[in-house]
Amino acid sequence: MEPEESMAVSDFLIKGNLLKQGAEARVYRDTFLGKSTIIKERFPKKYRHPLLDEKLTHRRTVQEVRSIQRCRKAGIPTPVVHFVDYTSHCIFLEDIVDSVTVRDHIVSTQQRPHPGPTLEHLAPLAAKVGQIIAKMHDEDVVHGDLTTSNMLLRTSGYVVGDAAELSLVLIDFGLSYISALPEDKGVDLYVLEKAFLSTHPNTEALFQKLLKSYAASSKKSSAVIKKLDEVRLRGRKRSMVG
Amino acid sequence: MHTSHQLELYPKQTVTQLLFKGVKNSAELRKSAMEGKINAALINPKMIVDSFQVLVAANKAVHLQSIGKMKTRGLYSEIIFNLSPANNISEAFKRFGISDSDDSVLVVLVATDDESQVLADITEKVDGQQVPVAELPTLTDVMQIRKLYKVTPQEEKIGSLLDSVVCRMATKDVV
């Protein structure tokens, strides 16, 4: 009975266009209900006990869908959910066409020769990122995997150096959860800091800009920034000794 | 006049939509549908932003039927139920199904094979004028939809009303 349940979707995915494969899921692009759609499939992990695997996978799928909807309600741009199949653990999401990852955008901006320092060109973007994360944290959504690859920048209507024109979309809420704790939000920022500075060398000033914007946009930022300083000293995981 | 869409996940199933205006026999249609004499979902077009919204509901209904997890008794009632942001079945029928006083109706069919006969049957039963499905937006009651789906103003800044509606429909069973 079980394998037959998800036949329709897996038959469909076989023909689909595999974009990326990670440890947790595969991402496809295909036409669904007449629109270009991104499909995220959480495949079974054979190394886990089947029961545990099913539970974890199901919970993560539900969590991702919930966080997306919570963000959208609060006006934080995330892809629209079109359909969820809880038997094959697939989420069908809006394809954000004409977009680049913030990662690619920063890399290409750094490579281009500029009259002034690169930082100036990217400062509005950093400010925007800080502002959106602040908004998300104010809704008590902790992303769990903040990297510059998990942020998309719409390229249509994009004007360099004008923050008002920047349209940013947050993606991949697979590790997200709801929490009001400054600790969790601090770790969220810490993860981003680590990812940001290792993906984009010599951008310390740019990241400071991002944090400044975060602090200015969020109502509860002071406790989070204080936690971030603590987390920097000890690392992402809390010491469980004693 | 009508639009048809073959479901990508269930290629044997095609969703067809027909829109009628100036309908005079809504009460009769509703009664026949409830008695099972009309094999179609009769939807109040005022609550529909775009035909894509109906496709999302129909796809979900066919999917739930195939895995035996429908919440209502039939495929067509399930389509109407899926349109609703809430989990109350009778409320969904009241808002999204047709009422006796309605003068327009959106007919939704899910067919496995040749549907021309079914289409002809339906068209015959509706006492009204068939118009292109593309005219749906002219009938949409935007205020009513915003209210019923509880669409927030900040949400409409990041996407269309259709986006907000579809996302709620797709996520309602876990939110």
Overview of the molecule:
Chain A is of the alpha+beta class. Chain A has eight helices and ten strands. Chain A has helices at residues 2-5, 7-15, 50-73, 102-111, 118-138, 182-199, 204-217, 221-234, and strands at 17-21, 26-32, 35-41, 81-85, 90-94, 99-101, 141-142, 151-154, 168-170, 177-178. In chain A, the strands form three sheets. In chain A, strands 1-2-3-5-4 form a five-stranded antiparallel β-sheet, sandwiched between helices. In chain A, helix 5 (118-138) runs parallel beside helix 7. By secondary structure, chain B is an alpha+beta fold. Chain B has one domain (3-171): PF0523-like (2-Layer Sandwich). In chain B, 46% of the residues lie in helices and 14% in strands. Chain B contains nine helices and five strands; from the N terminus they run E-E-H-E-H-H-H-E-H-E-H-H-H-H. Chain B has helices spanning 26-34, 51-66, 75-83, 89-96, 116-125, 136-139, 142-149, 153-158, 161-171, and strands at 3-6, 14-21, 41-43, 105-111, 129-131. In chain B, strands 1, 2, 3, 4 and 5 form a five-stranded antiparallel β-sheet that branches. The termini of chain B are far apart. In chain B, 42% of the residues are buried. At the A-B interface, helix 2, strand 2, helix 3 and strand 4 of A face helix 2, helix 8 and helix 9 of B.
List keywords for this structure.
heterodimer; A: about 240 residues; B: PF0523-like; five-stranded antiparallel beta sheet; 9 helices; about 15% strand
